[in-house]
Here is the input.
Amino acid sequence: MLNARREPAAAIAGRARSIRRNSLRMVHAAGLGHPGGDLSCADILATLYFHVLRVDPGAPTHPDRDRFILSKGHASAALYATLAEAGFLAADSLDDFMKPLSALNGHPNRVKVPGVEANTGPLGHGLPIAVGAALGARLQRAPWRTFVLTGDGELQEGSNWEAAMAASQFRLEQLTVIVDRNGLQQGAGTEETVALEPLVDRWRSFGFEVVEVDGHDIGALVSVFGRLPLGPARPTCIIARTQKGRGVSFIQDRADWHHRVPTTAELNDAIMELEDPS
Here is the structure.
């Protein structure tokens, strides 16, 4: 069986800062992207790839690997930056983000990018794919686990709840859904658009074990992931309370940064804020 990397919390926090800096550089260079959502999920991605996931960048299709699916595929810059940080991609490949014919498209492509498990972008697709993967592991009696990261606005898509019913029906305890609960989506807050609360109760009513966590507290994330599965014969939902644009003062908690591109001056200011605080 593959082993996770198990880096300490301080090292993971440094990885997350690097992911944030690189994702912003990528969006700035491309003139396209979704920086708010990239920044909100960076701590989650860093914790998964540097403490939780049993994966091997030297063997990205190893049959015993854990599967991770980024359902909020518009946060591709954060995913690519994480894959480069973890050794799946060359660091200089990030320079090609969204260039014509680049493998690093605006949405992840499993055929073109090592470490990507599913083509995502149309919202509401990642969780159904993850349910199928987890069911496949069950049928094969395989040890690997399936993790899927969704956006919170994405949960307004009905396909997620059909998939959640199936996950409960098949008792997929090796499935973990992580909700990037930053409260904002394109143009407005989630509760102004289609209210999601009480979100904990909703997931529980669909048969999931549910826990809430500060999605920027590395230690808390490590602790929650270390307790998986949270219940026998039940899938898990981790609601990670996050901030859109986390780490950059003028981007945090602003819906207009869902897909705004930083100017050169804004990028420089953001990079300064994201430097190692020590």
Summary: The longest strand covers residues 175-181. The chain has one domain: 9-273. Residues 46 and 255 are 24 Å apart (CA to CA).
